[in-house]
UniProtKB/TrEMBL annotation:
Keywords: Coiled coil, DNA-binding, Transcription, Transcription regulation
Family matches, as NCBIfam families: PRK11716.1
CDD domains, alphabetized: PBP2_IlvY
Domain HTH lysR-type per the UniProt entry, residue ranges: 1-58
Protein name: HTH-type transcriptional activator IlvY
Parts of the chain that traverse the membrane: none
Any coiled-coil regions, as ranges: 65-92
A GO MF term: transcription cis-regulatory region binding
Family the UniProt entry places it in: Belongs to the LysR transcriptional regulatory family.
InterPro entries: IlvY_PBP2, LysR_HTH_N, LysR_subst-bd, WH-like_DNA-bd_sf, WH_DNA-bd_sf
């Protein structure tokens, strides 16, 4: 018994006409008769009642029809599944992002990607977000969650995720709640060593004629929250960093309406943008993922 024989049997069980089935299934009537005879020999029973005027299924034939219908359905499903596996994306993709982004943005993104492409392995590296661009440029990763800046290299492709606002924070014990309470000559500032937050903060200071009294320059926005919580000064940090910081309850947010947010997104080399794995990542519906 094979699947071709079951296909012929199924068609004949439906048409109940040897000539019609032979024509529809591209076999000769004699070949069809031999197939049915072989099935009956294998099963040790008659499958059809035949006379000069009609063909009808026997009780055994009805039982085989139920079996063959299910078997052929499962066979077709198996072939479809195997084809999907063959066509599915395979391989590894590397992604760089900050620890904060791995908590705030990455889970929903990866969940959607894994659902669509379960055969792809993801290698995740976390670190200072200011290094994202360099990691992509030096091809230490395929993709990075990065911040778009005015001087972003033209050989990079950027796909936006969302605009991230900056907030000014102060130690809770200092009881500062308004900008007007800050004496910029006395209150020290904690600044990032490099990166977009540093650029935007200095731009804001310049626009307001403030020369910040910098207490320390630190690596990473998370470190700014910690330094401010320890009463080392005040500082600007991305709101998403503060929202995911264990030190958030030790600082106070001071409203600043006119400081620009920065665009957060996925970036890769322009030359790698259309590679299958990277293209699949960039085509995710990020809005629905989050």
């Amino acid at each position: 018994m094979d699947f071709r024989s079951l296909q012929l049997f199924n068609h004949l069980a439906t048409s109940l006409h040897f000539g019609d089935t032979a024509q529809a299934m591209y076999v000769s009537p004699s070949t069809l008769s031999r197939v049915i005879q072989r099935l009956e020999d294998e099963l040790g029973c008659s499958l059809f009642k035949r006379d000069n005027r009609k063909v009808a299924l026997t009780h055994s034939g009805h039982k085989l029809l139920a079996f063959s219908t299910q078997a052929l359905k499962e066979w077709q499903q198996l072939k479809a599944n195997l084809k999907e596996d063959e066509d599915a994306l395979q391989g590894e993709i590397s992604l760089f992002c900050s620890v904060t982004a791995s908590q705030s943005h990455l889970p929903a993104i990866l969940r959607q990607f894994r659902q669509q492409h379960p055969g792809v392995d993801i290698r995740l590296v976390t670190g200072d977000p200011a290094l994202s661009i360099d990691k992509v440029k030096q091809q230490e990763c395929d993709l990075a969650i990065a911040i778009h800046t005015p001087d972003m290299p033209t050989d990079l492709y950027f796909s936006p995720l969302e605009d991230v606002p900056l907030v000014l924070i102060a130690p809770k014990e200092w009881r500062l709640t308004q900008l007007s309470q800050i004496d910029w000559t006395q209150h020290q500032v904690v600044m990032p060593e490099h990166g977009p937050t540093r650029r935007i903060a200095y731009h804001w200071f310049a626009e307001h004629g403030v020369r910040p009294n910098v207490y320390a320059s630190v690596g990473g926005n998370e470190a700014i929250v910690s330094m401010v919580a320890l009463e080392c000064g005040i500082g600007f940090v991305p709101k998403v960093v503060l929202d995911h910081s264990s030190m958030a309850n030790s600082v106070t947010q001071i409203p600043v309406k006119d400081i620009e947010p920065y665009p957060l997104g996925l970036c890769c080399l322009q030359t790698k943008q259309h590679e299958p794995l990277i293209d699949a990542f960039l085509k995710l519906d990020i809005a629905s993922a989050r």
